[in-house]
Design goal:
mainly alpha; three-stranded antiparallel β-sheet
């Protein structure tokens, strides 16, 4: 199992026996096709898998993001790490400019407008709401029927532990897309509408209402506790395409970070670092291989090949769609955050000298994925051990700020130094010294931005930082530009539930919307 490639996994997801395929098709269509039900009734004549091994393959095919390739890819256009760059000549203008604009300009109906524009012609929807609930259906099938499958207790625990971890992850993502932040200063989580909790694969005529943000977080916490019970005893690892006990604890550390539960952040990060302390030393990164055609093959930061990887999933189009890569690149503000000697500035992105600006519209573009020739070959997202160090550093910095105890600040700096020692050459690395608590917290956040840009963290981080104002500029020429401003605490920090979901479930209450300010 540990040596399986992504291609093999896609084959395994598609090549299960007839019983598995029929159940998968019926149940997935059931979750999406009715205007009256969230789940439609399954035909009683369908066969179902019996062995735990079959359920494991079914889980890979229906509940893992590799089976969809997309989750909520438009979000990559909304934060302050991205910037639109006017084309050098009108001959360089392509569909990606205007197709990316609805999300880039934070339009309430961005989803409908981007879908109508053919933003993703592959046929895979950018509807994150639909995509996540489709995957949740797969986890619910495993959790409901897996315990009675034919297999060993250890295999069943591994199956269920994965399903609980995945369901926790998907609800965590959903509530952070369609609900207000847990720590929103303008309200409290028990008063904020989150998303409906669907926890069974049973037939139901009900139209579930939105549970509160607090209720969703409680379910995420409950699922993770169940996952720990299933995964921590055996500690089965070795397959980065499936979640394991380490991934579950890293997710728990992230969830606690969003809830401002600093002690839990530290406890779960401790667990991750105990079992997966590895960090990629960028001094050893430089590529030393080529593909069979002689093209240089660059080792990835995301996915297979990075010793930090705990779990890898989804497509590179999730965080940097090829459709918009020639129109939207790294923001100049993001590039300015890197010290000249930071090896990430040489490896995590490519930069052309300013003199080339008259010929190249985008001077800086992310380069975190394995590239052979001009083809991106790796998955697009990953849980990495570096997150555990940064989560823990931020939690210690928060405790330092709250208590004034400098020992917490020292621990935060130790984690930051551990990471940064692997991001600079020995000659250039300068350990952090004593920093005031507020400055240390800000440094933690800046380091997180430098490490995880274009990996799906920044939009969520901005929400939990207090939803600051963001400005995006857009233009088809350098002399004629429009400016869009997302105000602090703007309603558009919480996405609109897609109209298709509202039509299917009349009990869903839409999030408030407000026009984003535009100027010329």
């Amino acid at each position: 199992m540990a040596n399986r490639t992504i291609k093999q996994y896609k084959w395994a997801a598609a090549a299960g026996n007839c019983r598995m395929r029929m159940l998968m098709t019926v149940l997935l269509l059931a979750s999406l096709s009715s205007c009256k039900k969230f789940l439609q009734e399954r035909s009683q004549s369908d066969f179902t898998p019996k062995s735990t091994t079959s359920f494991s393959e079914l889980l890979m095919g229906t509940a893992y993001p590799l089976s969809t390739g997309r989750l909520h890819q438009a979000i990559c256009l909304m934060d302050d790490d991205v910037q639109e760059y006017p084309p050098v000549t009108q001959g360089d203008v392509g569909d990606g400019y205007e197709q990316g604009l609805p999300a880039y300009a934070w339009q309430p109906d961005f989803f409908e407008r981007m879908e109508a524009s053919g933003f993703d012609p592959s046929g895979i929807t950018i509807d994150g709401y639909k995509n996540y609930y489709k995957l949740i259906t797969g986890t619910n099938i495993a959790l409901q029927y897996g315990p009675e499958s034919e297999g060993t207790r250890a295999d069943k625990d591994y199956l269920l532990g994965q399903a609980y971890t995945l369901r926790a992850f998907y609800y965590f993502q959903l509530v952070n897309l369609y609900g207000r932040p847990y720590n929103d200063s303008t309200t409290t989580p028990e008063k904020s509408p989150g998303v409906p909790l669907i926890l069974t694969a049973n037939v139901s005529d009900s139209m579930p209402r939105r549970h509160s943000v607090q209720q969703v977080y409680r379910q995420v916490h409950s699922d993770l506790q169940q996952a720990f019970q299933m995964l921590d005893a055996e500690k089965r690892t070795g397959d980065i395409f499936r979640v394991d006990h380490i991934a579950a604890h890293l997710l728990a550390s992230r969830v606690a970070l969003y809830m401002c539960d600093w002690d839990s952040v530290i406890r779960h990060a401790d667990y991750v670092i105990q079992y997966h302390p590895q960090l990629m030393n960028l001094n050893d990164w430089f590529p030393r291989k080529t593909d069979p055609s002689g093209n240089p093959a660059f080792l990835p930061i995301i996915g297979v090949g990075n010793r930090e990887t705990i779990w890898t999933y989804s497509s590179s189009n999730e965080t940097y769609p090829l459709k918009i890569a020639y129109a939207y690149g790294m923001s100049k503000d993001l590039v300015s955050q890197f010290e000249p000697t930071d090896l990430r500035a040489q490896i995590y992105f490519t930069t052309a000298p300013p003199i080339f600006e008259q010929w190249i519209s985008i001077l800086s573009q992310p380069a975190k994925w394995e590239i052979i020739g001009t083809i991106i070959t790796t998955t697009g997202c990953a849980f990495r051990s570096s997150e555990a160090y940064l989560n823990r550093a931020e939690a210690y910095a928060q405790k330092y700020l709250l208590t004034g105890d400098a020992s917490f600040g020292q621990k935060a700096m130790e984690d930051l130094n551990t990471l940064r020692k692997n991001r600079f050459s020995a000659a250039d690395f300068q350990p952090l010294q004593a920093i005031p608590a507020d400055s240390l917290l800000q440094f933690c956040r800046q380091e997180r931005r430098r490490e995880f840009f274009f990996e799906g963290h920044r939009w969520f981080d901005l929400r939990r930082y207090g939803m600051p104002s963001i400005t995006h500029t857009y233009g088809m020429t350098k002399t004629s530009q429009r400016t869009f401003t997302l105000q602090a605490h703007d309603p558009q920090y919480t996405l609109q539930i897609p109209p298709t979901a509202i039509l299917m479930n009349q009990n869903l209450i839409q999030n408030p919307a407000a026009p984003v300010r535009e100027s010329h």
